[in-house]
Give the backbone structure.
Amino acid sequence: MKKILLSGIAVLTCTTLMAQHSLEKLWQSDSLTLRSPESVLYDARSNSLYVSSMGSGTIVHMGIDGKTIKADWVTGLRGNMGSAIYNGLLYTKEGAGVAVIDVEKATVVKRIPIEGAGMLNDLAVDAKWIIYVSDTRGGKVYRIEDKATIYVENLPGANGLLTAGADLYIITSNSLVKANANKEITKIADGFDNGMDGVVMIGDNEFIVSNYQGILYYVNPNSTKQILLDTRASRIGANDISYDSKSKTLFVPSFFTNRIIAYKVK
């Protein structure tokens, strides 16, 4: 009887860990405002979105309903991609450095160069106001305090970044890894298709990661993964994603179709 009970608990635990998740499409933005949107950033403070419209060198301010608030919120950027926001400042990768934008004034107030960078891509800011920038071509992540220094390296295709406490989560070409405060690297999940892009945290040790070709994966606490969406055949794409934990809404930039698409995570 005891063995049967324990077996039942084991099966129940396994089933819970392997619970299937799904996405419900809520809306998609128009395809006229954005030009090659590489990343979208949800800002809880304003309950709105900031989109890196890389093709036009602008950041578009958008409502959480997909309607444009201001198409030319910030202009004159060069190859802007991943963004992060902290304490009234929005940071975006621009060229071989980072542009710092005063959110209230909607103006670039500073530019931070990163010498020796190959191809900068995504950004994250931690609670200590430290900036992290991925270098996809160089396979490394830079850390910016007063100046930029190499934080971790030997990470092929380093792309999407996420900070959580003292940990930094990093998307590589085909894996999700974690660097702790001692810069020790732990593999969270691997075996993804090449072309990985963004990462968001859904819960404790639960993530959604994106592949720019058009795949969204759910990563479970036991490191197993589930394909939530695969739009490769229709070339919709899924670039640097963002997530509103309160409404459980995932925001997905479609570089190929010039849209942001919102999904409810279930």
